[in-house]
Structures are given as structure tokens and as C-alpha cells.
Amino acid sequence: MTSVSQQRFYHACRWLLAPWLRRRINLEVIGLEHLPTGAGILVCNHRSNIDPSIVSVAIPRYISWVTAAYMQELPITHWLIQRTGMVLMEVDGPVKPSSFKQALGVLSRGALLGIFPEGERYIFQNDFAAPLADFHRGFAVLALKAQVPIVPMMICPQQEQLTRLTIPPKLQSHIGQSHDLTLIQHIPQYQAVNVVLDKPIFPTSGVRELMTTTRQAMDTLQQQHWGTRHGIGA
């Protein structure tokens, strides 16, 4: 369960990260007035390994991130997960009841839960100009169960370069063959990016309808704010 100390550590990391990130990336946040004051689920697209850092800097509130369970196998990441109160979930197969309970606990305390519903699907397809990948359904199930709003969000690159993603063998051995990141040919490196929030979606329908409504809102944000023209780097 997320503690006060975890939230304080999260904000300390955010405070240290923000100047470094803003020197590297021209970051603009649009629609921050749509951020709820209480519990909510931030649902965002996922194109790069730096996406959680970008959203964490863009959003002034504490976010408990849902992250792939295998990330705890990485030594430094395991420590960060524990210190900031991330929620671990399996990317293959059913979600463990303990993970679902932890996510609901975050929402019951009025905090924000951050989810990339595409998981790794978008990154693995190696087409960074493509539409959104298919969504996992967990965010909609959680919203209905907790009766909290979903805030559709898009990371919309304005300028970026695609660079080759090199995974050191030692890290790859920790992650395991079922998550073979060597299949990813490139990864976007943002130079300028807009983080855009849309109006909250309240869970008044079923899971499928909620997924469709959220997807439509994010598709619209992508159409309105996507401005990137990228090159290929080394």
C-alpha cells in the first residue's frame, strides 16, 4: 500500500528529474484543468522508455504507476518500485488478485493510478507513426470497480529522432526471453513533446463501452496534437 514516505520519495525524484528532462525536451502540458483533485486513472499512450518520466514531470500530483511485473527483476528498478509505490502486474496471462487489490487500494485513498493500456504492443511493432495499439482491459475494469474517472492522455511528439535501442546482455538476462526487447529496432528520443489531457470519462457503462470511449478520446487527441516529423539516428 502506498505510504506517505513513498509519495514523498516520488515527489523528491520528480523534483530532481524535472530540470534534467526539461533541458533535454521542450515539454508543453495542455489540458491540466482536466486533472481530478481526487482519485482517477490516467490512461496514456506508450511509445518510449522515457514516457513515465515525461508524464511524472508533466503532472504535479503523485502517480502510482502500473508497471510490468518483470521489471522487478532489474536491481535498480526493483528498488524504485518499492520506494515509489508502483503496482506490479503481469503482462502475459491473468492479473494476480493481489495486484488488482493494490491498484484498488491506491484509488480508495484518493490517489492517481497511471496506466499505459497498450503495454509494450506499440513499441514492439516498430512503427512509431502508427495509430494506437490494442488496449488491455484492466484500466476499464478498475474504473468500474472503484467508480473513479478515467483521464485520457496523449504524449504527442512535435520533434523526435528514432535511435537504435541496445539492451545490454546482463539486463536482457534479468528480463527473460519472454520479453525479448532485442526485437525492438528503434526507440523515439523526443526533442519536443506535448502532453495533452482530455475531459474525464466517468464509468457509467460496461467495460467494452468504456474502453471504446477512452480509445476514441485518445484517437482524437492524437489527430489534433500530433506534430512530429522524425528522422532515423544511429
Q: Nutshell version of this structure?
A:
The chain is of the alpha/beta class and about 230 residues long.
Task: Tell me what the structure shows.
This protein has eight helices and eight strands, in the order H-E-E-H-E-H-E-H-E-H-H-E-H-E-H-E. It has helices at 4-24, 51-58, 75-84, 97-108, 121-124, 138-146, 169-175, 207-225, and strands spanning 26-30, 40-44, 63-68, 87-89, 112-115, 150-164, 186-197, 230-232. Strands 1, 2, 3, 4, 5, 6, 7 and 8 form an eight-stranded mixed β-sheet that branches. The relative contact order is 0.20. Residues 230-234 have low confidence and may be disordered.
Number of E-state strands? 8
Helix-and-strand structural type: alpha/beta
Biggest β-sheet description: 8 strands, mixed
Helix content: 25-40%
Flag low-confidence runs.
Answer: 230-234
Gross morphology: globular
What descriptive keywords fit this protein?
single chain, 234 residues, alpha/beta, eight-stranded mixed sheet
Q: Could you give the topology of this structure?
A:
Layout: H1 4-24, E1 26-30, E2 40-44, H2 51-58, E3 63-68, H3 75-84, E4 87-89, H4 97-108, E5 112-115, H5 121-124, H6 138-146, E6 150-164, H7 169-175, E7 186-197, H8 207-225, E8 230-232
Parallel strand pairs: 1-7, 2-5, 2-6, 3-4, 3-5, 6-8
Antiparallel strand pairs: 6-7
